[in-house]
Amino acid sequence: MTKIILKRKIALRIFNGHPWVFGNEVEKIIGEPNAGDIVDVFYHDDKFCGRGYYNAKSQIVVRLLTRKKEEINEQFFFDKIKQAWEYRQRIGYVENCRLIFGEADEMPALIIDKFNDYFVIQTLSFGMDKFKPFIVKALETIFKPKGIYERNDVPVRELEGLQQYKGFLSTPFSTNIIINENGLKFNVDIENGQKTGYFLDQQDNRRAIQHIVKGADVLGAFTYTGTFEIHAAHYGAKSVFGIDISENAVAQANKNAALNGLDNICKFEAMNAFDVLKNWGKEEKKYDVVMLDPPAFTKSRETISKAITGYKEINLRGMKLIKNGGFLVTSSCTNLVQPELFLHTIQQAAKDARKKIKQVVFNAQAADHPIVWGMENTNYLKFLIVEVRNM
Ligand code: SAH
């Protein structure tokens, strides 16, 4: 097997358990590995570091799968997926969950979402992509699923020399399914929905709005298929208006409202949230609760400040639309904007909007997307509820 020898001065990151080896951390390669091959990684003093898969084309030349000298075979993947499922069950997930959250489950570049009997997979690196048959086999053995689908229509694959692709990994099935969440039902479009079809990462946070929406007039922006808004109606909101720029998402959201018998309370329209937040402020429209859940504003360090400006802008406008003593429910899924910076940005927005705010809830993503300390990008979602009062 190919040996990869690390430089004497490598980041403590690898030693402390992080699975990525960058090209500039490699001293020597003994052998001629092909993309996707399993290689052994050694520290400079020849001590064994771990075993992982190689790709010269990627900035991350090795992603470690284990720190033991164990075979990376069908059994290895079976054990890992079984262990991840047992973990989700132990922390309370029954029907739907992110079954594998990449690095946090020691399965770098692998995402598996479980939607009751259906599974959606993303293999985002060359090495992981090669193991798809083992992954599918493990899912079949453990779950006897009704369907497995691949949503590899993701641009990052191209950095690895892979093509974008989506399609069935099981016998074809109807890809419009219904899941249950917190006593509600939601349509999930596995084939054409955003990402894997549904945002499981907010599934715990959707319950956090329960008490603040009773009898409220609610405005939701960036609603996607209307999950937060339909929860608001379910928890007793008087009226809920949701906007998303995607016609598809809005159609799905209205369908979800009807599916739950809440279409008399919940309405969705396709609009640009930036325009709405700006223009409605001028009309003195007011809501008891405003909810914002925008897409990631940046994926690169160079444009963090632009993302911050975006967050400040929408939150400032959102706060101005809230009645005195109402609530702002706001999220950020940009992993480069770390929690402290996000809170600071909200504080700045409040200051400029001349509002006093009080923290009600501050969470990360749902616990089925585990945060591993030392792996910054596992801590990516910020979910905040604040009470908003006039100065
Ligand atoms: N709250 C949702 C997830 C929202 S994802 C849930 O929990 O399921 C972000 C959404 O923002 C996407 O649906 C996207 O279509 C929408 N979006 C992006 N830009 C927008 C804009 N300018 N105005 C309104 N919606 C926008």
Describe the structure.
This protein is of the alpha/beta class and 391 residues long. The chain folds into three domains: 3-66, PUA domain (Archaeosine Trna-guanine Transglycosylase, Chain: A, domain 4, Roll); 74-177, RNA methyltransferase domain (HRMD) like (Transcription Regulator spoIIAA), CATH 3.30.750.80; 199-390, Vaccinia Virus protein VP39 (Rossmann fold, 3-Layer(aba) Sandwich). The protein has ten helices and 20 strands. The chain has helices at residues 12-15, 74-90, 126-130, 132-143, 156-159, 227-234, 247-259, 273-282, 304-320, 339-352, and strands spanning 3-6, 20-22, 26-30, 38-42, 48-54, 60-66, 96-101, 110-115, 118-123, 147-152, 165-168, 176-181, 184-189, 217-221, 239-244, 266-270, 287-292, 322-332, 355-363, 382-390. The chain has a seven-stranded mixed β-sheet with strand order 16-15-14-17-18-20-19, sandwiched between helices. Strands 2-6-5-4-1-3 form a six-stranded mixed β-sheet. A hairpin with a 2-residue loop joins strand 8 and strand 9 (118-123). It is globular, with a radius of gyration of 23 Å. The termini are far apart. The model has no long low-confidence stretch (mean pLDDT 97). The structure holds S-adenosyl-L-homocysteine (SAH). Residues 194, 199, 202, 222-225, 227-228, 243-246, 249, 272-274, 293-295 line the site of S-adenosyl-L-homocysteine (SAH).
